[in-house]
Structure formats: C-alpha cells, structure tokens
Amino acid sequence: MKLERFSLRGRTAVVTGAVGLLGREHCLALGEAAANVVVTDVDAAACERFARELEAADVRAIGIAADITSKTDLERLRDAALARFGGIDVLVNNAAIDDKYDAGADLGASRFEEYALERWRRSLDVNVTGTFLCCQVLGKVMVDNGRGSIVNVASTYGVVAPDQSLYVGKDGEQLFFKSAAYPVSKSAVIALSRYLATYWGRSGVRVNTLSPGGVEAQQDAHFVENYSRRTPMGRMARRDEYRGALVFLASEASSYLTGFNLVVDGGWTAW
C-alpha cells in the first residue's frame, strides 16, 4: 500500500478543544500529514497563538475561537474556515469536560449521591450536545461536497466503567470518585458516531470514534503507578501516541471504515 493514502494534502481539518493536551497533538498530527488545520477552542488568544506555532512549522493554519455549544459560533467558524481554505474535509471533535477534583477536599462532591445536577448538565451539554452541533453544522459541508471524515474522540470510559480504585491514595483513602457524567457522555459520543455512520453512509462521509486511554501528564506518582499496573503494557500513554491512529481515521487509509470505535489504550480494555 502506498503511504500517500495517509496524506491529507489539500484537505482542511477542524479540531475542537485544539489547545488542550491531546488537541495540540491532534493538530500536529494533521499538520504532519499536510492538512490545513483550523484550531478551535474557547480562548481566542490561545487559538491564534497555537495557529502561529503551526505556521512556523510549515503548517497552513488559522485559529478561531468558538463555543461548541453555540450553533451561531459554529456557523461563524464554518464560514471562516471556508473563506480561508475553501472547504472542510476532516472534523475532529475533541473538546470535552472531564471533572477535576482536589484530592480529598472534594470527596463528598464527587460521590454519585451528591453529584451536582449543574455539573451533570454542563458535561452533557459540552461533551454530547457540542459534538452533535459540530457534526450538524460542519458535517453538512462534507455531505454537500460528497466526502469527509469525522473523528469523534471518546474514551476507554465510554466502553468500560471507571475503576474507582485508581483514585485511592497511598494511605488507602478514596481521594475522589470519577463521576458518572464523563463515561455516560463518552458512551453517547460512541453511539452518535454509529448513528451518523449509518445515516451518512452513502453520502461519502465517514464517522468513526477514537477512544484513547490515559495519558501521562505529570499526575501524582502513585496514580501513574496504579494506572500502569492496571494496563497490560505497563504504562500510561505518551501524549504523541495517538497521532498515527488519528491520521489513519482522518485519511483515505481508512476509506472503507465507518461506524468503528478505535480503542488505543495499551490493552486497558482487554481484561
């Protein structure tokens, strides 16, 4: 097989949540594959700054701030991308809320029995409705053009339940609980991908899910040790280890793949 099938030269990719940990890696991967990259997040200055970094690395890029829960924002984003690059060929729905807690201090608030309805609604609004709106507004451009690839980023926690023992400290005390909102919303993202894969199957638009495992990012050493012990490969992912999977799903290398959830987790869900 010719490696040209992995090339995204001449294609334009929109990445949401683009200035976050994995969002930046997704943009870099698409840029390495020669795509034009639209950097999208809520912080306008950060988007523009990262777009300039990409351009300094010979990637054609623009930074446009958008709230993915706002259809008006997304329509403005769509119009700006079309004005600059003339099309939208790839959409990476990466933006998401994942609850963060102060170890020990927020134990009660993280319990399912006490979990705030406002947190629940906000997580579903961003993680599910935001993904829905991005697919609706930007996916329509692809449908009209008769081609495109949407990659919805989910999580291993969209496939299996959280292992709450990971969030136990050295002294054996539960520091916090992983909330229900994140796994429920990521499961919904996987279901939405399957729905759209079948709905748009004959329109030339493929829709797949990328479900990453945990990424090492200066977490507490005890947590990293626990996570690594729980993973067949014995470690957490490096932040750049999803680049190949993303380019595969975005490019013609996966031209007959749709409705699929590609789990890249070091074997986490294998046992």
How would you characterize this protein structure?
The protein has helices at residues 21-32, 44-56, 71-85, 107-110, 117-145, 181-199, 221-230, 243-250, and strands at residues 12-16, 36-41, 61-65, 90-93, 148-153, 205-212, 261-264. Strands 3-2-1-4-5-6-7 form a seven-stranded parallel beta sheet, with helices on both faces. Helix 1 (21-32) links the parallel strand 1 and strand 2 (36-41). Helices cover 41% and strands 14% of the residues. It has one domain: Rossmann fold, CATH 3.40.50. The chain contains eight helices and seven strands, in the order βαβαβαβααβαβααβ. Helix 1 (21-32) packs across helix 8 and helix 5 (117-145) runs parallel beside helix 6 (181-199).
